[in-house]
Amino acid sequence: MADEALFQFLHNEVIQYVYKSAENGEMENGRCVSKLEHLGFRVGQGLIERFTKDTSRFKDELDVMKFICKDYWTSVFKKQIDNLRTNHQGIYVLQDNKFRLLTQLSSGKQYLEHAPKYLAFACGLVRGGLSNLGVRSIVTAEVSVMPACKFQVMIQKA
Amino acid sequence: MADEALFQFLHNEVIQYVYKSAENGEMENGRCVSKLEHLGFRVGQGLIERFTKDTSRFKDELDVMKFICKDYWTSVFKKQIDNLRTNHQGIYVLQDNKFRLLTQLSSGKQYLEHAPKYLAFACGLVRGGLSNLGVRSIVTAEVSVMPACKFQVMIQKA
């Protein structure tokens, strides 16, 4: 529990820090989300390397994606992805009905506009994890009703 | 274990990020350590609030300091402080013979010059924790032989 709190507090402070840098004119505002995403990407690369140390080889892309939704998500966010859908043409939608980094925000519409800040790092975590498993992707997220959210993964073919 | 890795990887990336901002001229180099320390301060404030939720009142300053060395340190860094010394005039020295955030660096002298980066956040954690327990302080750290380090806490009387 301590480590979970440690991560969550640090994650919150990093968000504040990145956005504050933007306010102070040290960085353009639009770059904040991509900075956070990049931090997540690097962390995801590290994590997946550790988590897959003893797993057997993945069969295919869908197999990788299932690993992300189950093992990876559970390790990082304490629960599985609730729903995984795909169009079988390289687009996957991962739905989390109670996303851990949003549960600390009040639900309702009041803070809906701030949700993207709290999802950017997680998008990076997914992209970084996939990347180290050999799957290049673009990951975006959207929230309609807090604390549920959807991550959309678009596979980038080589 | 996953959360511990998550924190450590994020902590590393935050260090890289802050120092990279300095390189790009978005910030003066000297401010990096104090930025990291400030992040730690804020996280420490949050953590101590959570950790002391159910503890009884502290008797005095030394009692607070023992709590930091035992319970707080164990929660965050997985082990107690190995040695606590004080001059009974407001200076405390906390020695950790195997500091968790340094064990990932190679021991020996090769990376000694990089050690301060990896201690700034921890200094802030201590200062923030103490601050929320009503003890104002200045916290510095030094490394002589990796991965051992000493944190010096100077109490600031009101």
Q: Outline of this structure?
A:
The structure is a homodimer of 158-residue chains. The first copy, chain A, is an alpha+beta fold and 158 residues long.
Could you describe the 3D structure shown?
2 copies of one chain form a homodimer. With 158 residues, chain A is an alpha+beta fold. Chain A has a single domain (2-155), classed as Trafficking protein particle complex subunit 3 (Muramoyl-pentapeptide Carboxypeptidase, domain 2), CATH 3.30.1380. Chain A is 49% helix and 15% strand. The first copy, chain A, has 4 helices and 4 strands; from the N terminus they run H-H-H-E-E-H-E-E. Chain A has a 4-stranded antiparallel β-sheet, covered by helices on one side. In chain A, a hairpin with a 6-residue loop joins strand 3 and strand 4. In chain A, helix 1 packs antiparallel against helix 2 and helix 2 (31-51) crosses helix 4 (115-132). The longest helix of chain A is centred in the first third of the chain and has 22 residues, at 2-23. The first copy, chain A, is globular and about 45 Å long. Chains A, B: This is Trafficking protein particle complex subunit 6B. Chains A, B: It is found in: Endoplasmic reticulum; Golgi apparatus, cis-Golgi network. Chains A, B: One of its GO terms (biological process) is nervous system development. Chains A, B: Belongs to the TRAPP small subunits family. BET3 subfamily. Chains A, B: Its main location: endoplasmic reticulum.
